[in-house]
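Sequence and structure are no longer studied apart. As an example, we show below a sequence and the tokens encoding its fold:
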Amino acid sequence: MLKTKRKSKKSKHKQSEKTTTTTLSKKEVAVQKRKTSQKRNELVQAIAISCLVSAAVSIPLLFIARPKIAIAGGAAVAILLLSYKYPRQALWAFLIYLPFSGTITYAIGGGNAAFQVAKDAFYIPALIALIQSCKKKQLPIFLPKQMIPTFSILLMMALLTLIFVNGDMQLNPMKGEKPLLQGILGLKVLIGYIPLIACTYYLIRTKKDLVFFSRMHVILAIVCCILGLIQYLLLQSGRCAGTRGMSGVELYKATLQARCFVGGSLVFSPEVKFIRLPGTFVAPWQWAWFLIGNAFLTFTSAFCDPSFWWRTIGLFGMALVFANAVISGQRAALVMVPVVTFVLLILTGQVVNLKRFIPIGVGLAILLFVGAAINPGIIEQRRESFISRWNAAPPQQFLFNQFEQSHNFIIDRNLGRGVGRATNSTRIFGATQLIETFQPKLIYELGYPGMIAFQLMVLHLAFLTFRAYRSVKDKSLRTYGASFWVFVAFITINTQYYPLDVDPVSVYYWVLAGAILKLPKIDKQVQDEKHEELESNDLQVHQQLKEKKIIASAPI
């Protein structure tokens, strides 16, 4: 019976292939070949031009800068040109580069600030190309349309602060400070990645693209987590010294001098049970939030992917994320990664799916057992560190102190103290105030009106994305939507640290929002296919033609 079914499927497949070939005339085949040849020639030409321009930039730089910087400068120009020409590929490259940006910054760039924004060489030209394509095809640029009013209010408040606060300081600046440039950079940090909503909406065209998006992030998570484990083992074995042997506050301070294998600054002081690893990122906090973000992304592959093998790879990714959360030394990751997994299992209904749930439980238990056997003190160290830090600085008290501090700073300053004045990345243009939570940071920079405007915008986005994912009928797509939305909702109401200011959450938040907003359209495609399957026996040709039409109508 089984053999009969397989033969039937094979014969149908062969029949559909035959139909495909016969439905295409010689003229159509010739047109396809001509288009393929044209695209190949365009690619070769674009690469050749980019290489020539790159060489024209790199060669002069060799005489005034280090070879690495000169080569990187030339490469950046080539990337800018190619990203504009191929925006779709550039956006994929942008997402791939993101988790390795910290490692590249220090391994190649020697900590040069330009390397920390190198990812924008992919993003900005691709965004410009997308806007132009949308105008040409008469498609909306900013998505969703309902979000425009709340975004406009935020933009207006930020511009008022930029003009009247940063502009006023620019008239009589402190020595070495450039308040207006600081404000412009701060504005870019605040709203610069919001267009990623539209970028992702158009990047993900079909369910196939969505599955690829999920699989790509699983592979990135696995690679980064393996590198993180190697970093820990090198430190643990003593091949990297870390911050061992230092004294006083140096034992608890992340430093670049302790850098090991990948990433940037770290703390590794086992004698005082204090560890903060950066993984592949610049700083430990970024690594912690990368692990939290990938608790969501690996979950989707583990439970939503149509392929058994990719679901298995997803489970492996989840285990690696969990392991790195334990050894990272970051209490946020240690708490949030297992909590996220548990919440998603309940919200998506996967907890009742024993075939998939049991392997996770068993796998994590084995992982904990092996980890505890190899390093008996690690679990106890993390528990003690977590409890001591909680007792020393309870989160609710810390948050209250942050709000109180910002409130005192802006008394009689309704528009805040200036855009970018509490943003770490803007310190190249002037002094910045250290504020360790996001909402108090917004109060300091934009005043209460600006903070309220930003919170209203992200709350509105959370509502729109919730409505979008709840409208999805397909079960697997709905699980994708639930996983992504919980992440968006969590970051929206998050009161700890400032993840929306730094990589990777400053990217993932808007990207996943765009993916959620695209789900209803993908769901409609899936429902149409199901309907067509009931009416038509020869579906493959029709689906291929439909997919080509969808791809052709997309701006990128």
